[in-house]
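Shape matters. Shown next:

___
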Amino acid sequence: MILQGKKILIMGIRNKWSIAWGVAQAVTEQGGEVIFTHHPMENMEKLYALLAEIPGVKTYPCDAASDESIKEALKEVKKNHGSVDGILHCIAHANTEDLRNDFINTSREGFSHASDVSAYSLVATARIAKQEELLNQNASIVALTYFGSEKVMEGYNVMGVAKAALEASIRYLAKDLGIENIRINAISAGPIKTLSAKGIKDFGSILDIVEQRAPLKRNVTQVEVGNVAAFLFSPLAASVTGEVIHADNGFSITGA
């Protein structure tokens, strides 16, 4: 078990279809302990029912658009669990109209909102985690991104721009955090039927295209992405930082 005795904070749990849940399953299967944060507006009855599948697990409210909320959540984690060995940033949001309309019609507010929640929240989390001494030596931070940051994907729009900012942020954070032997990477997951994905126009057709064109001729699962995250959290990835690793069955290497 590559994560035996490791504690991983998973930020942004929503439901059993989320990539965050796939990562949680992979981490626990590899011997790790998971701790969660959730948005304060989540349906807690459903969330608690899900988390009951992992005995004793805790979750803490965290609004990623607020530095104070992030700080409070991380302080609570530190107080109740001690320092952690990894953080998964599984947080992103864009206004529905900015995903359904043409990108050129993105509002200033919508652009700012998507960038703040989906990209800057990672910078804030890394900074606050460092300030609160939440991260153990050799800790690893992992964020989630998507191929729409590199190429135009129909309907991804402002989220593609936000994810591009996220990926650039990871490279700069890798430089700043590397001094303290903390690693940070991103996983560019193939499309998965998450709740967030439902906001993307014609998402079903994207799944069909991946099945047709990806070298492995199938879509990736949340558990497969979780296994990549478990690797990045583990000592096996001790030399990997500042990278965007594609877990998409090879779709990103194909031409049009």
